[in-house]
Every structure is written in structure tokens, then in C-alpha cells.
């Protein structure tokens, strides 16, 4: 259910204030009123509003000062000025300072203010949609950019396409670099929220002392340095989608706040006294095994079940090798626009044979490097990083005594991990480097096989 547009009405004329309040509430708005500029700004600092209506002539702080303060705190928020016929020049001046519109009193008709307000809110929505569309064009994100024809990829994209039509919470799992954020953006763009914001936040990249304010916002004076109210990522994603990347790295106390926000559809700003209602879809992602984290007491079980209404697992690139030629060609065209650059068969064979511990992100990096350093239109094996050739050579030189009745790939992988850890005396970083995978990938595999 979409929340009502919240309007702040400031006017020292009590009778007119009551008439306007009743009229706007009758038309479905949530209205808060104040009899002075000072009182209005106190409300503005503690609650979220979609528009402000203020009289221009009031004792104490007048409407012009209110306009300046609102513009400073929330640039672009629509402010409509109420003015008497004798102060129209002041209203025009207010328009120059950023007011959206003005209406004279007594009002020409009962609907006049409502029509101006409707126009202001529609303009704000269009601005937000245009900004969102520009971001889409710039980022070139869509389901179409989650490329792949392998069976594993098709399964993920089919499920993502079906869940996009709903408002269900989604948990995307997979190793780093597999394209989890790209998939989340695709779900957003295929949903009814596509014209609203897509806001991404990496929970592992924000300092612990700032993460709560970053997610939920804060009010002025909540802590040292909080010189003004600030919206958090949840509020910035209003009407759209909030993507919580690396959710498994979030502190347990903040996990509780996110759970409450998902259940109540409200958030509490740091230092705020009243909850803020929100309409936001949440998509989370992690490279951790959250079920193991729950068992270890590092992740709340109730939040895990709230997030994992639908789970999408992005397969690592080594398990979708059929997609490598398509992805390599895609990156080649992106980094060589208008060029006839192409991949030689020996280069493509090397790309396909490599294990890609960094997944699609590493492949993208390799193709960009090859595009920069290529000697001609054809990218050959010699234009690719030496580590790819070295890895292929190392694999060919491993002597395996394969039994006639077959072998378990999982047992072989487990034994390799154990031997790598034993060789490097339990040092996970060195073992991961030896196996040419990332440390998080090694930890994920260790958890999978029950290795301590």
C-alpha cells in the first residue's frame, strides 16, 4: 500500500488553517499543521514531507525565511506560498528563490490550492523518474545485461523474471564478482517500481560508526557532527528498491532494526522520536553462507527467513563456462566501440579453460586490459595476462590416477583444499592464493565441506 503524500501546512490564521487542512485531508493527503514558521521548521526537522505550504506574511519567521530553510535542508522539495493580493511582489520574489508556485487568498476556488499542490507533486515525481531513467541509461543496467545462455544462468533469470512482478523480498547469494547487484537492478527494472529509485548500499564498505545513520538517517543534534537532518538509504529509496549488498557483514544489533523495518514498514532515524512510514522493496545479497552464519550465531534467524522469501543463487563463472564466449564478446564490444576487434580461437580457448576466481568482474578486467594492450584487430593468447597461460600449464601438468569406475569431484576439491591448508599451516590467505581463488571463496568452500 502506497503511503499518502505528507504535507506541512504553516499559517498563523487558525480558521484558514483548519479549512485548508480539512480540504486536503478530504482529498487523501496526510497533513501536519503549524501556526508559525518556527513551529513548522521543528516539524519539518523531525518528520518527512513531500511538500510545504506556507503563508508568506506571519509574525516572527515569515514564509520567505521558511522557504530558505526548507531549500537548504531539502533542495527541490516543492514549496507553495500563500499570499494576499497586496504581497504578490513578495510571492514573485519567493518564486525566484525556489518556491514552486504561489496562490492568492482569498482562494479563487475551493480546488485552487489542491490543483497547485497536485501539479507540484506530479512535477516532483517526473523529476525523480527522469533522474532514474538517466541513471538507467548511464549504467546500462537491465536484465539483458545479465548475459548467459547456460542452463544455470537461464534458471536464475527465469526465476528473477517471475519474482520481479511481485513485491517479495529477495536474497541473492553467490561469490564476489558474479553479478549480484546487476541481477538486483534487473529485478528492479522489470518491476512496477522501475520509475522509482534503485538505491544500493554495501554494508561491508561503511564504517561501523556510520552504518546506522547511513541506512536510517538522523536528526539534527543526534550526535556530534549532525548539524542537520539527513535522510538515510531507506528513505532515499522511497517507492523503489533498496539493495543491501553484503548483508552478512552487518552487525547483529542493526540486523534487528532492519527486521523491524521490514515487518513494520517504518524506520527510526537516529535521534528521532517518531517512526517514518516507508514503501520500499528490499533485495539483499551476500557471498556468505547465511545458514551457517545463523548456526554460528552471527546472523539472526528471523531476519534470514524474512529476507529469503525467494533465494536466487548466482553461479560462479567456472560453473557456467558456456557463458564465457558470450561475455567475452560483450566486453570486447563495450571496450572497443566501432572497432572490428575480435578474439582469436587460441585466446578464446584460454579464456574458457581458466578458473576465474574473480568471476565475471575478473573477466571484464581481463578484456579491458586486452583491449588497451592489443597489437592489432585480433586479440591473441599473447595479449592476455600471463596468469591465464600459467594456470592452464599447471593444470595440464597435474598427474591424476583416475579410477576406472569414476571419481567424486567434490571429494577431490575437498582434498585439494585440505592439502593447500596443510601446506600453508592453516593460513587461509596463502592457501587461497595457492588455489588461485579469493579468500571468501575459500571460506565458503571450507564451510560447505565442514572444514574448520
Give a brief outline of the structure.
The protein has helices at residues 14-26, 37-46, 63-73, 88-96, 112-139, 151-164, 180-189, 208-216, 233-236, 252-264, 290-295, 301-307, 324-335, 345-353, 359-373, 386-396, 409-423, 428-435, 439-448, and strands spanning 6-10, 30-34, 51-55, 79-84, 101-105, 170-173, 198-202, 241-245, 266-267, 276-277, 281-286, 310-313, 342-343, 378-379. It has 452 residues and is an alpha/beta fold.
Report the radius of gyration as a whole number of Å.
28 Å
Assembly level: single chain
Shape summary: elongated
**Strands, total number:** 14
Domain unit count: 4
CATH level 1 class label of the largest domain:
Alpha Beta
Please give a handful of descriptors for the protein shown.
4 domains; 452 residues; five-stranded parallel sheet; Rossmann fold; Helicase, Ruva Protein, domain 3
What report would you give on this structure?
This protein is of the alpha/beta class and 452 residues long. It has four domains: 6-131, Response regulator (Rossmann fold), CATH 3.40.50; 140-313, Rossmann fold, CATH 3.40.50; 326-396, Helicase, Ruva Protein, domain 3 (Orthogonal Bundle); 409-448, Arc Repressor Mutant, subunit A (Orthogonal Bundle), CATH 1.10.10. The chain has helices at 14-26, 37-46, 63-73, 88-96, 112-139, 151-164, 180-189, 208-216, 233-236, 252-264, 290-295, 301-307, 324-335, 345-353, 359-373, 386-396, 409-423, 428-435, 439-448, and strands at residues 6-10, 30-34, 51-55, 79-84, 101-105, 170-173, 198-202, 241-245, 266-267, 276-277, 281-286, 310-313, 342-343, 378-379. The strands form four sheets. The protein has a five-stranded parallel sheet with strand order 2-1-3-4-5, sandwiched between helices. A five-stranded parallel sheet has the order 7-8-11-6-12. The chain has a two-stranded antiparallel sheet with strand order 9-10. The two termini are 47 Å apart. The model is unreliable at 136-142 (pLDDT under 50).
